[in-house]
Amino acid sequence: MWKCKKCGERVENAFAVCWNCGTSRDGVEDPSFRRETDDTTPAPEARPKPAPPRPPAPAPIVTTGNEVSGRPITGYLGVVRGVVVRSPGIGQSFLGGLKMMVGGNIESFAEVCDAARRDAFERMVKHAAEVGADAVIGMRYDATEFAQGVTEVLAYGTAVKLGGAAGAPTGG
User: Fold this and answer.
1) FRET pair for 64, CA 20 to 30 Å: which of 77, 78, 147, 162?
2) Do 137 and 67 reside in the same domain of the chain?
3) SS3 for 50?
4) Which helix (H) or strand (E) is 120 found in, with range?
5) Strand partners, 140
6) pLDDT tens for each residue of 104-149
7) Is residue 136 situated within a structural domain?
8) Which of 159, 136, 161 is nearest to 64 (CA)?
9) Are 80 and 124 in contact (CB under 8 A)?
10) How many domains does the chain have?
């Protein structure tokens, strides 16, 4: 045990700093140390209230077509993508290998592919939202095996801004 030079608190040897005031064994105070009951902490009613959370922006529309029905394209923001690299787990590989011997659908591999496509799609939608897109047109998937049992799945498309309904004023 050692005694704090600032507050006199007895502190276990395992601690290099006083738990009560933040002063080290040699008497040096840590200016960033704050106790919950520190006198400099404003009372709860004096603290500024956090802003209410903003509702999440609507997810961009995604289509494999080159337009969004009833909505004119007002701007092209560029290509957006989501990339995932996957390989089946050891159990999935074992079960898939057994299924390959007898033929038929290999459900364990299908699950890996489905999860990879879903994750790549979600990443692409997130990328589109980050660039401020209202929609992604021409969405496609691509897959490349670049090592034995390791596959890259890519979801991509063109991020666009949309106007109001076709023929309707856009308020601009």
Assistant:
1) 147
2) yes
3) coil
4) helix 107-130
5) 156
6) 565 666 777 888 899 999 999 999 999 999 999 999 999 888 777 7
7) yes
8) 136
9) yes
10) 2
